[in-house]
């Protein structure tokens, strides 16, 4: 049935076909604009989601960096404390029973 043919009383208008033909034939520009708007909206939502995910990841990495910096400072302090000469001498004398070498016990080798 053609849209331009007159209808009899028992026939119904093919409204769906008329609307589809109207959208695709007469309003191609409007349909293209609608399609562009939908694509732009989806793109905006996707970009916003990606941006929020990256911001969340950045803040997690910042917290991890601060934790590592704190651990580094603590390790440096521990290294300084453990390498202190008086501590090493105290461990050598008390735990290992070592004594300082007396000048008469020293042996000097010359070539």
Any descriptors?
mainly alpha, cell inner membrane, single chain, 111 residues, 0% strand, rod-shaped
Explain this structure.
- The protein has helices spanning 15-26, 28-82, 85-94.
- By secondary structure, the chain is mostly helical.
- The chain has one domain.
- The model has no long low-confidence stretch (mean pLDDT 85).
Major sheet details: none
Q: Rg, please?
A: 43 Å
Tell me the series of helices and strands, N- to C-terminal: HHH
Q: Oligomeric status of the shown chains?
A: single chain
Instruction: Give the overall pLDDT as a whole number.
Output: 85
Roughly what fraction of the amino acids lie in strands? under 5%
Q: How many β-strand stretches?
A: 0
**What shape does the CA trace take?**
rod-shaped
Q: Would you tell me the structural class of the helices and strands?
A: mainly alpha
Compact summary:
The protein is mostly helical and 111 residues long. It has 3 helices and no strands.
Topology:
Blueprint lengths: L14 H12 L1 H55 L2 H10 L17
Helix pairs in contact: 1-2
Organism: Lonepinella koalarum
Family: Belongs to the FtsL family.
Pfam family, one: FtsL
């Amino acid at each position: 049935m053609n849209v331009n043919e007159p209808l009899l009383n028992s026939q119904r208008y093919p409204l769906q076909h008329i609307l589809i033909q109207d959208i695709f034939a007469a309003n191609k520009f409007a349909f293209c604009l609608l399609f562009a708007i939908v694509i732009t909206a989806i793109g905006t939502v996707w970009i916003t989601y990606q941006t929020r995910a990256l911001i969340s990841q950045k803040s997690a990495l910042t917290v991890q960096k601060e934790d590592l910096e704190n651990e580094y400072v603590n390790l440096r302090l521990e290294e300084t404390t453990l390498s202190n000469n008086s501590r090493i001498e105290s461990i050598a004398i008390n735990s290992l029973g070592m004594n300082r070498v007396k000048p008469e016990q020293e042996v000097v080798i010359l070539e």
